User: Fold this.
Amino acid sequence: MLLRIRKGQVAHKDFKLNDNFIIEYEHKEAMHPFDVTEPKRRFVPSKWERMKIFKIKKALREGRMKTLEEKK
Assistant:
């Protein structure tokens, strides 16, 4: 089976690749979740994310926390 896959063939030798098969799923019916036209500038972080960022900024200013460059 591995040799057949490496050659670019179907893994199982009894499988018929060119048989007629029915596609049951139409791609036009479902909308892709990333097809949203909303721009990135409308993204507003949550209250808790904002508070966490303020804590990190304050710790950096006071010297309680160091950046990676300062640690080196």
